From TrEMBL:
<dbReference type="Pfam" id="PF00789">
    <property type="entry name" value="UBX"/>
</dbReference>
<feature type="region of interest" description="Disordered">
    <location>
        <begin position="258"/>
        <end position="333"/>
    </location>
</feature>
<dbReference type="InterPro" id="IPR001012">
    <property type="entry name" value="UBX_dom"/>
</dbReference>
<feature type="compositionally biased region" description="Polar residues">
    <location>
        <begin position="270"/>
        <end position="279"/>
    </location>
</feature>
<dbReference type="InterPro" id="IPR050730">
    <property type="entry name" value="UBX_domain-protein"/>
</dbReference>
<dbReference type="GO" id="GO:0005634">
    <property type="term" value="C:nucleus"/>
</dbReference>
<feature type="compositionally biased region" description="Acidic residues">
    <location>
        <begin position="295"/>
        <end position="314"/>
    </location>
</feature>
<dbReference type="InterPro" id="IPR006577">
    <property type="entry name" value="UAS"/>
</dbReference>
<feature type="domain" description="UBX">
    <location>
        <begin position="331"/>
        <end position="407"/>
    </location>
</feature>
<dbReference type="GO" id="GO:0043161">
    <property type="term" value="P:proteasome-mediated ubiquitin-dependent protein catabolic process"/>
</dbReference>
<dbReference type="Pfam" id="PF14555">
    <property type="entry name" value="UBA_4"/>
</dbReference>
<dbReference type="InterPro" id="IPR009060">
    <property type="entry name" value="UBA-like_sf"/>
</dbReference>
<dbReference type="InterPro" id="IPR029071">
    <property type="entry name" value="Ubiquitin-like_domsf"/>
</dbReference>
<dbReference type="GO" id="GO:0043130">
    <property type="term" value="F:ubiquitin binding"/>
</dbReference>
<dbReference type="InterPro" id="IPR036249">
    <property type="entry name" value="Thioredoxin-like_sf"/>
</dbReference>
<protein>
    <submittedName>
        <fullName>UBX domain-containing protein 2</fullName>
    </submittedName>
</protein>
<dbReference type="Pfam" id="PF13899">
    <property type="entry name" value="Thioredoxin_7"/>
</dbReference>
Amino acid sequence: MADSQEDLIATFCAVTSAEVGTAEQYLQAADYNLENAVELFFASGGASIATQNTVINNDDVAAAEAAQAAEYAEPEVRERIERRVDRLVDPDVPRFVFGNEPPIPSAPRGIFNQGRNMDFAQNMSPHERRLAELFRPPFDMMEDLDLDSAKQEAQEEKKWLLVNIQDTTEFSCQRLNRDLWRHESVKVVVKENFVFLQYDNDSTDGQMYRSLYPFETFPHMAILDPWTGEQQKVWSKVPSVEHFLEDLVEFLGQPGSVEQAPQEPLSVKGTASNTTITQVPEPEIVAGQEKLAEDGEEEEEEEKEEQEEEETTPEDPVASIEPLDIPEPDPGADVTRIQLRLSDGQRIVRRFKVSTKVAEIFAIIKHLKPEFAGKSLVLTAGRQNLSSELEKTIEEANLKNSTVLVES
């Protein structure tokens, strides 16, 4: 017997306290759909399906006898139906109010398709409520946000974004709710370091996510950088609690994680936030003050030398980049989308080949916005200043599916 079937039987027995043989009967009858099998079990009072099949349904026999008698009976001539004319639909009424299509109704709530409230469980038996609680999604740590809003919240809280896409028809997804998200250690780590989202595959948010980050298997989990949108880590199967915590600790321990988690992009203008302040012990401060007068003349000379060096500094390579009208490539495996966010709030989404050099992005921006021609632009993606990455390709600079801030 396949491992998945053994898991289903074990779960069925744990929830219903039924024997293994009874579990197999109900699961086979429900085509191994656990939710349907459990509901069938409780609806039938837990009786064995084999026993039920030996009972003759008297109503069915009576119905068959009546049908046979009717077949040989004299045909009955019904009275003529009177003609009637009526208006069924007023032609002046629009098909849909305000011209909008009605929303697609969501699937009925149930044990494996739960909402945040438990209204659907009011008519459940104690066994069914136990099952619903066992497989309840982790609403206590989930954010009820779309992907863009979640990215914004993660930026403000300086956290990473953790996304889980579920398919309610896949029992492995139910195992994720039962075994992983319920674990207290997992809850602590996720709440402290991530903005957590769980979407159903058939929901609008789930479909939107899959259009941006295609995948094939369920359940799907991924860590995203909320500034660039780049996937940092992906899981495509249910990990054990121990392995999942090890993965999270390893990821959060890397440079750029936890305390250095997604920070605000670099600013072109000098601000207090860009100034590094080093705490100096008090004795050193006193010594420095005593020596300040002696070093005054030397500092003036150094400033003059720095000014002379600035005057002889080579031309800014970004300012010298000429505008280029490079055609936008067609979608393909070697093509990615990059969102350009300008300082005035305007956003430009454009396709690029992953082999495109960063310098060409500057050239394309100057072509799209002629007012930037001849100017030195600052392009940042997350914590990365792209002015120093001109010769790298988009793939080498990790800019696939990213957002780039453009400032002049």
